[in-house]
Amino acid sequence: MGMIINIDEALRQRTDYNILREPLNEMLKNKQEAWERSNPIDFLFTRGSIGTFQETYTSSIGFSHAFVETADYAVGPIFNTEEGFSATFRTRTFQGGFTITQQTLEDRLMGKAKDDATQFIKRWHGDTVEYCMAAMSAGFGQVVPWGYDGPNGNGGVTRLLLNTADTVSGDIMDANKNPLFTNKHTIVKRRGMTATDISNAYQGNCFYANIDLTSSDPGKIAKLADVINQAVTIMENYKDDNGKRAGVLGAKSIVSANEPHLKAALATALSLEMFNDMGQKQGLNPGYKRATCVETPYLLDIPQTAARTAANGATIGQGFFITDKAYNAENHGPQLTERIAFTLKVKENDEAPYGIKYQGRQRWDINVASWRGILYLYLGNPNDSLGDGSNVPITWANPANFTELVPTDTIVKPVSIVGTVTTA
Length: 424
What we know:
five-stranded mixed β-sheet; 23% helix; alpha/beta; 424 residues
């Protein structure tokens, strides 16, 4: 995201503004660049821009076929392409500001001015990250509010719901869109296709694996490695809106919360070249280097990836995302769409409270058209969120939208006690 700061004119208008000649604008730009070098937003979203208040992206389902066998002198048939699903990308306006007081100017408290500006920019970008994480949480079919009016609130509430371009029925005229994460994503319903044809072609990017990483199960890492391999392979085999192979073949990244047990389990499952016969069959690890791992503490703030307490009292991350950034960049996957770059304007207040007022403004939002470049994997059973057999389902998504991934039987080697030794 870009940044525009308009303080030069103010610096010329009044000598009191000279306190800001550190220069403040250069410091703010450096702060912006530091965030962009390592930003949790870029783990899950691509960045894009639009030139109007909204733009609609419509996929083409291409050709069902391109050739048939003909006689030598026959004329080949003409195949037609058709319109596919569409998604409209929009932006919202966000504004906020702060004031450097008259007393700060009079006392030439340069450090105070710098600290206020630094904290404001830091909070602006922090709010942006938190908003993006909330938007990802809103991809499971339920509206998620961001912001609140209470004490220390931001003075407003934004309602978020992240749906994709494909429709529930497969009909391109259907206004009922699928959530970003579901096991019922559709292909385009061509002429002559029935509802059964559509349901038989359902694809999903919302899975669960009933694995307890806090248990004493010696095969838990092997099971995790196997379901990661299954999930990545499912992504590679996705079909496009036309029912043809989509080619989701880019490098995969696992994005998880910075939770110590899950972080360690994922790193182990992806780094072991071979299993060593300790609780699993000796041999190659199917999850070896199938993806790379990145973590962010911001994902601890949404229920899909937050740490929960297991039945034995230990904490563990609930789930994680797998992304293909190359595919998302080319196919309008989850995107931070910017219309107007972050602008920080400055003016002198000629009414109380006197001082210098900085007003920030930016137009952007989170949008998505294609779901194929991101997958969610829940560790546990969404129908038994407490993991204690009480069958309390998750509340942030419909458990029916999840498909189970079962580790291959031969991955795990049962361990049994064949004899005991008694000592005095």
